[in-house]
Automatic annotation (TrEMBL):
This is Aminotransferase. Pfam families: Aminotran_1_2. Gene3D superfamilies: Aspartate Aminotransferase, domain 1, Type I PLP-dependent aspartate aminotransferase-like (Major domain). One of its GO terms (molecular function) is transaminase activity. Residues 33-383 form the Aminotransferase class I/classII large domain. Its EC number is 2.6.1.-. The keyword Ribonucleoprotein does not apply. Its cofactor is pyridoxal 5'-phosphate. InterPro entries: Aminotransferase_I/II_large (IPR004839), LL-DAP_aminotransferase (IPR050881), NHTrfase_class1_PyrdxlP-BS (IPR004838), PyrdxlP-dep_Trfase (IPR015424), PyrdxlP-dep_Trfase_major (IPR015421), PyrdxlP-dep_Trfase_small (IPR015422). Keywords: Aminotransferase, Transferase. CDD domains: AAT_like. The gene is dapL.
Amino acid sequence: MIIETALRTRQTSEYYFSVKLAEVRKLLAEGHDVINLGIGNPDMMPSEQTIQALANAALKPQAHGYQPYVGTPAYRNAIASFYYQTYGVKLDPLTEILPLIGSKEGITHISLTFLDPGDEVLVPELGYPAYRAVSQMVGAVVQEYPLREEHGWQPDWEVMEGLVSARTKIMWLNYPHMPTGAPATIALFEQAVAFAQKHKILLCHDNPYSLVLNKKKPISLLSVPGAREVAIELNSMSKSHNMAGWRLGWVAAAKPYIDAVLTIKSNVDSGMFWAMQEAAVAALQNDQAWHDSRNAVYQGRLDAAEAFLSALNCTWDSRQEGMFLWGKLPDSVESAEQLVNSLLLEKYVFIAPGFIFGPKGQRYIRLSLCMPKERIWEAVKRIKG
Ligand SMILES: Cc1ncc(COP(=O)(O)O)c(C=O)c1O
């Protein structure tokens, strides 16, 4: 290439899965039966009413034009009802919700909206890689905060005090936590809000897993008194509604925050396909039985995933929530990278190494539950054989 890329591109690495899944595809193309337990890509269908709504709407002549930057009123109303029913949080559909093309893009929009070069961002030392990558892309300085197993994978607020500077602008938080599966608690959210209030930091909570294998009523950070002054919450239909490929999510916050994000976002994309928003409305009305049956399937896969970890002599915490199982490697395994590569090349089983979520994940692996249980058992058989 004779044109040099920007510094930010040179300083950013391609997303791990983007590289690794190309390797998986190559093995598949060579005829190998690869079992992919790496990525959190739901294999189950959205509800029937969702697909039907998409098909019906797509047939309408008015479906195909540009749509409002702020999403359709029907989609925003459906999100507001869902928030109230699920979390008991009242949102004004006109001013406190902004639909997103998946919550991942929201991380970029929020960072572009609030961060100047040199601002500091508190990022969990183990977490979704985009928080760190995007902060760096916009020229901010990443300040990692520790998440320790012995502390329930939650921030230690005394340690946090020492990490704040006059330039700290954003803190990323995500509970139920990916990749460790640590649950959300009201106490944790209250402490986070108090911390953000004290230091005038924008608390960005990423909440895609609250409905997946949750052991108690799902929680929104916005349910904590005072949260709206300092917090913004991302949510997504990828995992909770089996709609990862549809790219449907939203950000919820007080009006000034939403208006600010819209200033940036409206210069980036031009709304979402109307038929998809209609389908999202239908999906948000899935009843509790639908959510229960999705969770029952994941629950049924957990035995196989635990047998997989057990076959590798890993240890794990059985209180995990979300659609993964996070396991600690035994001392006998030299490195996660070596294990992941040998499982892929010798057993044709792909799992995620913990270090892709931060260097502190080096002695861990993450299994996804997005595979039929028979396939996970087949993977167990292969690694035992
Ligand atoms: C913690 C976390 N946040 C955000 C996302 C992105 O979700 P979406 O599909 O809504 O972009 C993921 C996806 O794996 C995730 O694990």
